[in-house]
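Tutorial, part two.
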Amino acid sequence: PGSFKLSYYNEYKSYLSMSWSGNTDFSRNQVPKQMQHVQVPMMFYPVHPGMIPMMPVEQQGTNPGDIPEPVVNFIKWLQHYISLNEIYHVENMYEDGFYKLSDYYFKDKPWPSPEAVQEILEEKDEHSIFMILYRELYFRHIYARCKPTIEHRFESYHNYCDLFSYILAPDQPVSIELPNKWLWDIIDEFVYQFQSFQQFKSKSGKMNEEEKIMLRDEDDVWKVTAVLNILIQLTEKCNINLQLQAIEAGEVVTEELAGEFGMRPIYRMTGYFSLIGLLRLYCLLGDYHMALSCVQHIQFKDKDMMSLVPACQITANYYAGFANFMIRKYANTIYLYQHILGYIQRTKHFFQNRSFQAEDINKKNDQMLALLAIASTFCPLRLDESVNQQVKEKYSDKLNRLQHGDMTVYDDLFFSGCPKFLSPIVSENSSSLFGSSGPRGLQLQVFKSEVDQQRLIPTLRSYLKLYTTIPISKLAKFLDMDENQVRCCLMAFKHKKEVAKGDGGEQTTLDIDFYVDKNMIHISDTKVARHYGDYYVQQIIKLRESNRQILSRVMAAAPPQ
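Running the prediction step on this input gives:
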């Protein structure tokens, strides 16, 4: 089935039988060469002394304590490969095997309990690293496929504390290595479960008395300060910001710079993913400037470290774009979103085969299109043709209404595109802090106040683009306003379209430029000339630098006279 080559089945079966009997060291080099890149279906995971196919679900037995034999073997092999740091096999089993077994055996119920797995593996230490990792998968599956209880929420938090303590507490780097995808999922799920707990806690009216008592007794569980502290410690442990600054400057990352921990992949990648986790968390809390400061040294491009995990790349671009959107840097939002939307468009065939990823990615795609429609109204920059087509297909009926300042459309698109905001403080009567609509409604009010200030700007721009000079009195008649109000609108137009550069300079996003001389408005379209001028200046500088380097090398290689 699938890409599995049946001609290699007997050879692979022989290899696995040898491995089970202890005749090989399980290293990737021992796998037959032609089999190293073959995705082995779950039905061929080995069962001593050979291999058997999966049993149909209805034949697994009626005892709820029975664990299907392929699941038992999957757990045993996963433990074995993790103990040997066999990243290649761990990655295949995690990305392919775990989700296939979940769909087949545990579609709407939990995986075997950690206690049952501990008994199967004859593992005496419940706090061993494998048991911690298994519990992380166990609770994550419950959150995804079942309804977590308050006990599950507490136990999952304590398990994350055990996992991060295992990584952070030792004086020497730990020896374990995990795939980048798993490390990203750990950080992403950690932030998601915090978000889920805060939303659960805010709905105290639906809790029974026992749950309320448990929340009061365990008030230190999933505290925002604790979650932030863990993510910050993970970034500091590997000096990830110093590493990113060195990479940005074109320097080589050395042990002196990164430290002993920073040179290990598990610390470096966990620290990097924690920066994206902080970006997401600060966005959920509404602190957008702090969110962007966490990723100021990250390069949002395909060749950056985040491209190693597509889900991380999409998440980072979404939240960075949203943070820029909320602080009025619409040009940055447009740049980030059209880049990542083009990436999703090019790679969507890859995600379609993975339903567990496709659903989340499609949701992010729709959210970004909604925000991009608003951003391009406030800052009409040229979009890539494929992205522009997506926006028109999705919101063709709403784009014209946006241009005319329809507040209901702005509200609808904002709610479609924004994340589920959180409050850093959740009380039993949290509605009194934010009103009946909660933190999301508060952020909507902030956004609507900005829209109120900009709603006339698209109309004003459309008139200015028709003229090279126009009296204020004439423009006032077009807009049905008095001259003082028009002057205020012109000032607002100038102010709203000036956005700060990262280096502290000013970069205009005006597609037209104008100035007012007494009662006359003078308009000029300078965007194209300025764009091409900058381009040719940059190319001349690059050419001169290339000539200088070539001449210096020629002079160095010339024999002395």
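The two ends are 72 Å apart (CA to CA). In part three we will examine how such features are distributed along the chain.
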